[in-house]
Amino acid sequence: MLVSQILRTKGDLVFTATPNETVGAICALLYARRVGAMVVMDGDAVAGIVSERDVVRAVAEGGAEALTQPISKFMTREVQFAKPGETVDSLLTKMTDRRIRHLPVVEGARLLGIVSIGDLVKSKISEVEAEADGLKAYIATG
User: Using the 8-state DSSP alphabet, how is residue 36 labeled?
Assistant: First the structure.
């Protein structure tokens, strides 16, 4: 299965933030939107990504004062991206190797969506279940 197929099912909604939003504001947004990461945009360009892990690191390093600091100070700047034509298997490998849970999907410089490791695992499970059902049907019809 391809990333583009996951986005067709999941949708292309991406929650974004700006680099000057505070860590505290980002925490509130992550909680309210029930997501684990947000893409940080500087105009139309991806400036970084901020995850729950980045927020925890910020507070561990800076204490409560970190909550008033801009997220640009703590966000991940070297963003790993997914392309619409990439396969679930290749992204699972990339995410496992780099120990990341979210990948913004881009085509050129355009942000198309975001996939999480949960989205990829769900897709993989559906694929395996469909294959198992097909094999069962084949065996049953002899």
Answer: S
Provide the pLDDT for residue 138.
Answer: 83
| 26 phi/psi in degrees, rounded to 5 | -65, -40
Q: What is the identity of the amino acid at 67?
A: L
What token pair was written down for 119?
Answer: 């989205």
How far apart CA 63 and CA 128 sit, in angstroms, is 45
What's this model's pTM, rounded to 2 decimal places?
A: 0.86
Question: What residues does each domain of the chain span?
Answer: 3-141
Give dist(CA 129, CA 86) in Å, integer. 21
For the chain, list residues with pLDDT below 50: none
Q: Does domain 3-141 have CATH number 3.10.580.10?
A: yes
The number of residues in the chain equals 142
